[in-house]
Amino acid sequence: MLRVQLTKKAEKGLMQAPLHIKNKFAIWIQSLQRDGLLETRKRSGFHDKPLKGKREGERSVRLNTSSQFE
């Protein structure tokens, strides 16, 4: 089971983000839970990458500003 954990900085940024970014984030989480990481990574608009060093085993996701979802 995948677990999504936000840093304090990410939580603050998400609270201040526009509604379409908040919605896209919610869609990303739902996609992870429904389809798994490998399928979710195939979708455009979700810039997902593994972290290195002390953060190995964690991932970073960057949501573009497009309001369209596939």
Structure overview:
It is a single chain. The model has no long low-confidence stretch (mean pLDDT 83). The chain has one domain (8-63). It is globular, with a radius of gyration of 12 Å. It has helices at 8-16, 19-35, 37-41, and strands at 46-50, 59-63. The protein has 70 residues and is α+β, with helices and mostly antiparallel strands. The chain is built from three helices and two strands. Strand 1 (46-50) and strand 2 (59-63) form a beta hairpin. The protein has a two-stranded antiparallel sheet with strand order 1-2.
Main sheet characteristics: 2 strands, antiparallel
- Percent range of helical residues: 40-55%
Number of individual domains = 1
Question: How many helices?
Answer: 3
Q: Strand order within the widest sheet? A: 1-2
SSE run = HHHEE
- Taking all Cα atoms into account, the compactness measure Rg is 12 Å
Count of strand segments: 2
Separation, N- and C-terminal Cα atoms: 24 Å
Mean pLDDT: 83
Sheet/helix structural class: alpha+beta
- What fraction of residues sit in β-strands? 5-15%
Approximate shape = globular
Low-confidence stretches: none
